[in-house]
Design brief:
The complex is a heterodimer of chains A (435) and B (97). Chain A has 2 domains: 4-113 and 140-304 and 422-433, no CATH class; 305-418, Alpha-Beta Plaits (2-Layer Sandwich), CATH 3.30.70. In chain A, 28% of the residues lie in helices and 28% in strands. Chain A is built from 11 helices and 18 strands. In chain A, the strands form 3 sheets. Chain A has a 10-stranded mixed beta sheet with strand order 11-12-8-7-1-2-3-6-4-18, sandwiched between helices. In chain A, strands 5, 14, 15, 16 and 17 form a 5-stranded antiparallel beta sheet that branches. The longest helix of chain A is centred in the last third of the chain and has 19 residues, at 324-342. The two termini of chain A are 33 Å apart. Chain B is 24% helix and 27% strand. Chain B is built from 3 helices and 4 strands, in the order ββααββα. Chain B has helices at residues 28-37, 40-47, 90-94, and strands spanning 9-15, 18-24, 54-59, 64-69. A 4-stranded antiparallel beta sheet of chain B has the order 1-2-4-3. Classes of the chains: A alpha+beta (435), B alpha+beta (97). At the A-B interface, α9, β14, β15, β16 and β17 of A face β1, β2 and β4 of B.
Chain lengths: 435, 97
């Protein structure tokens, strides 16, 4: 049986378009995956859908498919994406309306809002979901590969999901192609997904540093793909001539990325151990990967629960010169006083001095900077208070200390996320082909 | 003792309110030295947090470590109003150890 070639066209909702287009047109791919859902994306999409202010799916979906789907269809390749967000069915309908010749499937069933048990424990805490009763806006289970495999085996060219395990988007076409059943191969397929799901983070993105980590042609990173063998071993690479770098180091960094316990990486399909994975640079920009081991198949799905968190307001103003920090601190005092005394607000203000302690709040810079950006933020359930904070920050132009420049402020709806578990038997993934 | 930056590389990610920093070395001697530097107390002291928030998992076959610092992200990306709500910058600070 021949190898299967799978690439990634987006590693987050805001990813570039051209990398995917090149892959689709010149990569000889069997499957292309767009991973577009961050943790809170579905919560925000649910709010959009229910308020009628926009689609419940990723608004960039059609833009992503424009330069990629025709090429993939021409070579009978598959496209999978979780850009369906809170409304995969509507996303699939829209895709079908534009690409009538394609077989388009939506995977439903990740929305478990109705099945949610308010007595469920919130992961990592001793609290229960009932603590947020009345504020829950969405609940989506991280589905595994099963329903996607079913869709692909029924001939789907395009599979659109809501919430699923990121790696499952990559595992599904591998299972559908190779008919894998052994846990060792499933583990390998999950590893393919884990390494590709953040797109260029494995091919030279999020890597470059002074001196020790140089990345060639870094402005034009090639999007990565994997050539997967029937036994599950695979090679990560990219199109010749594209920028970036695929080395043992770039792959190892991504292997470790966001895995709390490398001995037990839990995904909906299988828990795997990545501590003994073997990485070998076999040629320039080609790294072979093998050796993920299967631990067990979880009996539960993780559920991401969106909580209405009111509004987040933030703004900034910058000061320059020797006394910049003094004036930024004075400006912060002004905001603090007016927020609590004049406007009688009790919400906590987050106050940072960019250039002094913003990314490192536990330890201020050792010397006084001669330019500082004051940043102020707050959460509030009162929209008018969010507006007030923005106005107060901008008012520092005229009413604040000397020489304040670049005052801007804005607020937006805020959705918090908590996680819980749901028994797999309570969740019913479903494939719908749209006509 | 050299800085960790001279022995290792780091990539930072997040889950909820926790920072997850992958650290790795290019050879055994660097890994052995990094192992002694990456004590829980030293990391806690470096980030101004409690030792109970920190865990370090050495991965000798990969000459790597997973460092987890729990509760350091002011609520995490969905909640924090900080400049860097993901804590993406924390790995660079860890390398200053």
């Amino acid at each position: 049986m021949k190898n299967f070639r799978i690439g990634v066209g987006a590693g987050f909702a805001g990813d570039r378009f051209d990398g995917a287009e090149l892959l689709a047109q010149q990569g000889n791919l069997d499957a292309l995956v767009f991973e577009c859902l961050a943790e809170r994306t579905i919560g925000l999409a649910s709010l959009r859908k229910h308020s009628g202010s926009g689609p419940g799916f990723d608004p960039l979906l059609m833009r992503r498919l424009e330069g990629t789907l025709p090429a993939m269809l021409a070579r009978e390749g598959r496209v999978l994406t979780n850009a369906g967000a809170a409304d995969p069915r509507a996303a699939a309908d829209l895709v079908k309306s534009k690409y009538a010749g394609a077989k388009v499937a939506a995977v439903l069933g990740d929305d478990v809002l109705e099945q949610l048990n308010l007595g469920s424990q919130i992961l990592g805490t001793d609290r229960q979901l009932s603590d947020f009763a009345g504020k829950i806006v969405s609940a989506n289970a991280y589905l595994g590969a099963d329903a996607m495999v079913q869709a692909l085996q029924a001939g789907a060219d395009v599979v659109i999901t809501g919430r699923c395990g990121d790696a499952a988007l990559f595992l599904a076409p591998l299972i559908a192609h190779f008919d894998w059943t052994a846990t060792q191969q499933i583990a390998a397929g999950i590893l393919v997904g884990h390494l590709l799901e953040c797109s260029t983070q494995v091919s030279g993105g999020y890597f470059a540093d002074k001196g020790k980590a140089a990345v060639p042609d870094i402005a034009n990173l090639g999007f990565p793909f994997a050539d997967v063998a029937p036994d599950g071993s695979f090679v990560i690479t990219k199109i010749d001539g594209t920028g970036g770098l695929i080395s043992r180091e770039t792959v190892l960094e991504q292997l470790l990325y966001e895995i709390t316990d490398p001995h037990r990486y839990i995904t909906p399909d299988l828990t795997i151990d990545i501590s003994s994975v073997a990485l070998e640079q076999i040629a320039l920009n080609k790294v072979s990967v093998s050796g993920a081991s299967a631990i067990e198949s979880p009996s539960t799905y993780k559920v991401s629960v969106g909580i209405d968190d009111g509004f987040g307001a933030k703004g900034e103003i910058s000061y320059g010169g020797e006394s910049a920090l003094y004036r930024a601190q004075l400006a912060a005092e002004i905001i603090r006083e007016r927020w609590s005394e004049n406007h009688k607000r009790g919400e906590e203000l987050t106050i940072e001095y960019l250039g002094y302690n913003a990314t490192r709040p536990w330890k201020s810079a050792s010397s006084t900077p001669d330019e500082v950006c004051l940043r102020i933020g707050a959460h509030t359930f009162d929209e008018s208070a969010a507006k007030t904070l923005c106005q107060e920050i901008e008012a520092l132009y005229l009413n604040g200390p000397a020489g304040g420049g670049g005052a801007t402020a804005r607020y937006s709806k805020s959705v918090g996320i908590v996680s819980t578990l749901i028994d797999k038997s309570e969740v019913h993934p479903e494939v719908v082909f749209v006509a | 003792m050299p800085k960790l930056a001279e022995l290792a590389f780091a990539r930072t990610g997040d889950k909820g309110d926790d920072s997850i920093i992958g650290v790795y070395c290019k050879n055994e001697p660097d890994f052995e030295q990094a192992l002694t530097k990456l004590s829980i107390d030293a990391i806690a002291n470096h980030f101004g947090c409690e030792s109970s928030q920190v865990s370090v998992t050495p991965l000798p076959k990969l000459m790597a470590f997973t460092v987890v610092i729990r509760g350091i992200l002011a609520g995490g990306v969905t909640r924090s109003m900080r400049t860097d709500p993901h804590g993406k910058t924390l790995g660079s600070y860890l390398l200053e150890l």
